[in-house]
């Protein structure tokens, strides 16, 4: 390949490496423009193959046509019935040069319909992903043109770059989609629902805003007796019923495992919302056949309304949740509107709040740290432990974080609670190391958004490490992906100072957002922790596999470690090993352990791992 062609390929690589889901079309057009100019042709185009609809789709072109017919005859071309030139794009494997002659008259006619140009020659190069043709890169010359072998070789190299970009964009779009949608039902997820409610409840918006929270009665029976795959299939069928039953404009979301929400678009009083809920409930008990089983379930529905400017999304969701609990506790298959009497149930929450304040302010014996081990999937070696906080309540027993973290945040104690967790975990780790246990293990501690932006966070970490005689490289602070992108400048400054201190930095739940992808090159991050939502179904979900592959490639490009969270099946473990991900956590390996059990595990140093399905 000549120097000029080498420079052309290098320039294309540099440009396409910088492309993102939002900019790939414009950057592709600029690259195509450079190629059109270099090769002295009249037009260039990039097309992607959509094998689900069996068509080739125009993605970018240069120059961009000004008067595009509607419909565009070359915008989407279905392979079935297409002319021979477009048809071969479905499985093209080698560059092809088409010159104007009678054999491709039908192709010339289609091009003339789309561009008003009669006779053209074409160089077409496939985009390949393994054995699959994912698109084509083409260049058109009015009249005729010969293409030299070295020119076609250069185009092959550039087409490969476009194919890599295409795969990356597909993975990024999938991550973006999953940030707002439930991966099982394709409905909006909890995060997107809360964002919608926040928008609807701003001061001055039209209200009341009504919310229906639907809880499927006794779904656990299906999961326990027929398996989760049947339960998942039933949920999909239920969602289709729900969509058909909703007879007015509304936002439908999956709120949790067996919980769904319906938020009517129009303002609606509680009485009208209750009547709407009863209509829904009457329609949501149709039987469906799944794996030969005839299944049906009733639903319990809680109804609540909120006033814009007065109520928050959390208020509305809490009321709906209380109402749904009332519907279920009365035997299920009921509709319950929220009423004031239900507020008495918040006495339990208030009790937790008061107890939590007392605990954080002095009675730290009620704070219990458990540890989730991290293993090397290849050897079973114990690599570290993630500190997980529990609250010992005098009447309710040992409470999980979901019961009190939200309370701590609501009363501005989350930062103080986080600092206490770090001190308790570091103190325990120091004791283990003084007994010669866990000398090479890393302690992982979650850092809340409030902690990260608090004044003196770096000094607090340094003081804690010094107090308990721990080397800084023994500690890894884990921040969530959402924290990374909230204030990039402040985050970069704080993380850089922590990194200079010598501690490790990990991005937790990676993959659930998307903005952080852009910022990784600016942040002193050591590790990406793949969110458990992408790990759980690795053996059965090709979309999850594509995302994890993308994260592994991203980590490799930035020189980062990867830890997989939430491994629950041998298949997931084996796939992660095949992908080169060796560090992992999850119930397949070990549940969270109390301090004594964790010390025992660290003393052993390693466990025997068996990922066979037998």
Task: Describe the 3D structure.
- The protein has 614 residues and is α/β, with parallel strands linked by helices.
- The chain folds into 3 domains: 3-180, GAF domain (Beta-Lactamase, 2-Layer Sandwich), CATH 3.30.450.40; 190-338, Reverse transcriptase/Diguanylate cyclase domain (Alpha-Beta Plaits); 348-603, EAL domain (TIM Barrel, Alpha-Beta Barrel), CATH 3.20.20.
- Helix content is 45%, strand content 21%.
- The protein is built from 22 helices and 22 strands.
- The protein has an 8-stranded mixed beta barrel with strand order 14-15-17-18-19-20-21-22, surrounded by 5 helices.
- Helix 11 (346-361) crosses helix 12 (401-410).
- The longest helix has 32 residues, at 149-180.
- The mean pLDDT is 87.
Topology:
Layout: H1 3-17, H2 24-39, E1 43-50, E2 55-62, E3 76-78, H3 84-88, E4 96-98, H4 105-115, E5 120-129, E6 132-142, H5 149-180, H6 190-200, E7 209-216, H7 219-226, H8 228-245, E8 250-254, E9 259-264, H9 270-283, E10 288-290, E11 293-295, E12 299-306, H10 313-329, E13 335-337, H11 346-361, E14 367-376, E15 382-393, E16 397-399, H12 401-410, H13 414-434, E17 442-446, H14 449-453, H15 457-467, E18 475-480, H16 481-486, H17 488-501, E19 504-510, H18 516-519, E20 527-530, H19 532-535, H20 542-558, E21 561-564, H21 570-579, E22 583-584, H22 595-604
Parallel strand pairs: 12-13, 15-17, 17-18, 18-19, 19-20, 20-21, 21-22
Antiparallel strand pairs: 1-2, 1-6, 2-3, 4-5, 5-6, 7-9, 7-12, 8-9, 10-11, 14-15, 14-22, 15-16
């Amino acid at each position: 390949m000549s120097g000029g062609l080498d420079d052309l390929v290098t320039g294309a690589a540099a440009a396409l490496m910088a492309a993102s889901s939002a900019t790939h079309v414009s950057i592709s057009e600029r690259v195509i423009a450079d190629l059109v100019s270099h090769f002295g042709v009249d037009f260039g185009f990039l097309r992607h193959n959509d094998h689900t609809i069996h068509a080739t789709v125009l993605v970018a072109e240069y120059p961009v046509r000004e008067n595009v017919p509607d419909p565009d005859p070359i915008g989407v071309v279905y392979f079935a019935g297409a002319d021979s030139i477009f048809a071969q794009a479905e499985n093209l494997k080698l560059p092809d040069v088409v010159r104007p002659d009678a054999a491709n008259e039908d192709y010339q006619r289609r091009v003339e319909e789309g561009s008003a140009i009669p006779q053209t020659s074409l160089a077409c190069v496939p985009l390949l992903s393994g054995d699959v043709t994912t698109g084509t890169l083409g260049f058109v010359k009015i009249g005729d043109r010969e293409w030299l072998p070295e020119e076609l070789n250069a185009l092959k190299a550039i087409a490969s770059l476009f194919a890599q970009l295409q795969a990356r964009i597909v993975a990024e779009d999938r991550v973006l989609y999953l940030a707002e949608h439930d991966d099982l039902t394709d409905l909006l997820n909890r995060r997107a629902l809360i964002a919608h409610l926040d928008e609807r409840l701003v001061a001055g918006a039209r209200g009341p805003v009504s919310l229906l929270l639907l809880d499927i009665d006794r779904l656990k029976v299906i999961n326990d007796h027929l398996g989760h795959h049947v339960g998942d299939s039933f949920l999909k069928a239920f969602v289709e019923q729900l969509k058909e039953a909703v007879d007015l404009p509304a936002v439908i979301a999956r709120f949790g495992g067996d919980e769904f929400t319906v938020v009517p678009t129009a303002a609606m009083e509680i009485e009208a919302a209750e009547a709407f809920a009863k209509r829904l409930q009457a329609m949501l008990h149709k039987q469906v056949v799944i794996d030969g089983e005839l299944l049906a379930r009733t639903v319990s529905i809680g109804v609540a309304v909120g006033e814009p400017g007065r109520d928050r999304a959390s208020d509305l969701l809490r009321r709906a949740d209380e109402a749904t609990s009332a519907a279920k506790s009365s035997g299920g298959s009921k509709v319950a509107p929220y009423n004031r009497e239900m507020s008495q149930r918040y006495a339990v929450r208030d009790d937790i709040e008061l107890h939590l304040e007392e605990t954080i302010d002095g009675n730290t014996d009620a704070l219990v740290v458990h540890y989730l081990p991290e293993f090397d999937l290849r050897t079973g070696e114990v690599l570290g432990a993630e500190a997980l906080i529990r609250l010992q309540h005098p009447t309710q027993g040992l409470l999980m974080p979901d019961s009190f973290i939200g309370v701590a945040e609501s009363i501005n104690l989350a930062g103080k609670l986080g600092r206490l967790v770090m001190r308790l975990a570091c103190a325990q780790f120091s004791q283990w190391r003084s007994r010669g246990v866990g000398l090479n293990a890393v302690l992982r501690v979650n850092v809340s958004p409030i902690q990260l932006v608090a004044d003196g966070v770096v000094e607090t970490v340094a003081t804690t490490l010094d107090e308990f005689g721990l080397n800084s490289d023994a500690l890894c602070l884990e921040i969530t992906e959402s924290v990374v992108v909230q204030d990039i400048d402040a985050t970069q400054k704080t993380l850089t100072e922590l990194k200079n201190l010598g501690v490790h930095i990990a991005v937790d739940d990676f993959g659930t957002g998307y903005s952080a992808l852009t910022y990784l090159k600016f942040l002193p991050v050591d590790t990406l922790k793949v969110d458990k939502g992408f790990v759980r179904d690795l053996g059965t979900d090709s979309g999850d596999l594509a995302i994890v592959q993308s994260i592994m490639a991203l980590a490799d490009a930035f020189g980062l470690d990867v830890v997989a969270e939430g491994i629950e099946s041998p298949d997931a473990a084996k796939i992660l090993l095949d992908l080169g991900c060796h560090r992992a956590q999850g119930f397949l390996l070990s549940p969270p352990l109390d301090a004594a059990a964790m010390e025992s595990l660290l003393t052993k140093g390693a466990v025997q791992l068996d990922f066979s399905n037998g």
